[in-house]
Amino acid sequence: MWEAWKSGDRKAAVEAIGDDVVDELVVHGSPQQCKDHIQAYVDNGVTVPVVMPLPFGLKTMDAVRLLAPAEDLARRASPAVSDGGL
Known about the structure:
By secondary structure, this protein is an all-alpha fold. The protein has helices spanning about 1-5, 10-15, 20-25, 30-45, 60-65, 70-75.
């Protein structure tokens, strides 16, 4: 891959990247599959996962809501919780 990239052959470089590498690095799939993949990063030491949803077939905020941990959704639905509604 690196040789193809260095020589300017971007197509060959991209083709040299296996699906298994993409599956390990890119969070994709159903909302639950994405949550599970993000959780695997957290379980392995990531303390602040930064997610940039690129949803297909739904609005970005709907995707964000589907990826949010359940406790965050409960807190937002009930703004009188001790955090002052944040």
